[in-house]
Amino acid sequence: MRTEVLVVGAGPAGIATAIHLRRAGREVLVVDKAAPGRDKICGDGLTASALRELELLGLDPTDIPSWQPVHDVVVRSPLGHRCRFPLPRGSGTYAAIARRAELDAALVQRARAEGVEVTQNTAMLSAVLGRKTATVELDSGRLDADYVVGADGMWSPLRRALGHARTGYRGEWHAFRQYFTGVSEAAATELFISFEADLLPGYFWSFPLPGGGANVGFGIQRGHKHRIQEMGALWPDLLARPHIRELLGPGATPETPHRAWPIPAAIDQTLSGRGRALYVGDAAAACDPMTGEGIGQALVTGRMAANAITAAFEDPPQAQWRYRESIEAELVPDHRMSALLIRALQHRKGVRVAVRVAGATNWTRTNFARWLFEDEPRGVLLTPRRWHRDFLGRPGAYR
Ligand SMILES: Cc1cc2nc3c(=O)[nH]c(=O)nc-3n(C[C@H](O)[C@H](O)[C@H](O)COP(=O)(O)OP(=O)(O)OC[C@H]3O[C@@H](n4cnc5c(N)ncnc54)[C@H](O)[C@@H]3O)c2cc1C
What we know:
By secondary structure, the chain is α+β, with helices and mostly antiparallel strands. The chain has 12 helices and 19 strands. Helix 2 crosses helix 8. Bound molecules: flavin-adenine dinucleotide (FAD).
């Protein structure tokens, strides 16, 4: 069997790659080892960048039952100071929550509607790169492709099969997630982030879901106070903290078991492609090093990889360089800015000062919320070529 582009993984990165390639007229096949309905362990938070990319893909939020736009963000400092940050009103959506099982299923449906062939329950087992062809062994048989795209997540089996994996790499963050039902009115409507002193620069979150639910979790960076192995024991301790108990309310009941997964945030140091193989999303370690968010970056890298492959069909060896150029121009500055900011979040005093300064006026409150939920205003400081008069006035998605 032969196709022009084989995409391994039908998460946000793989689907974005496939839709953009299909729109450019390329023949593309997506395979995913999981059965339909896979539930990626995630906070389900969609930033303004993610929302704009989803809109570009033609995703209709009404296809997702758990879609919950967010208007206010409440941040708690380690000493208990709380500040409410409103997102801009009346100019589109800047943040939303959507259960990953539903979001990913809607994206697969979207890709099929665009004419992409998506085959689930089919795993990539091994791969070899030739000068003109990538040969991939699937559990359904052998396939040759002009390009293969690894959209296969944090542990990227494609990267491993091709010898492109970093030995011993386990991601920069590790995060825990559990769904709750019956949460308080506040938890069911507001997005809440608490900088717990012992988790810094990590944080606890509660993200609202329709019907009185919430996605609740916490993330820590490797190498700080708590070890990854301690996270299981830390979870009941966190849920028992009075301000968290109060937020979730007396009726909060776990809906699912808690689960944990690593978050790779090292796009500046990670090989993004070689020859006829490119990596996107978590497989390219594209998550934000300050917030751990990665859906927006998965969608953006998918779009960039698709553009690079489309342009390089005339000149195949160029795909990896074109793709790297886009990453260096757009994503690495955002990454560096987040890496700088996270230094301030490593100590209680830094967080306390940041929350107080951010909450000083209406203007700082609104724009701090945008800093948290939009990558562009963060990274733009390091990229003067992206300065324009209204970079803080850009509308949200789905206006
Ligand atoms: C607890 C937690 C909370 C998070 N919260 C947020 C958040 O609120 N907002 C946010 O933006 N990001 C968040 N992230 C990060 C986000 O989940 C990821 O960055 C995002 O899912 C990356 O998408 P992806 O398409 O690259 O990879 P994935 O979503 O991991 O998709 C990879 C796909 O590859 C498939 N696959 C793997 N191996 C093979 C194989 N051999 N053959 C075929 N298919 C294969 C898998 O089945 C899967 O479908 C969080 C992460 C964690 C762990």
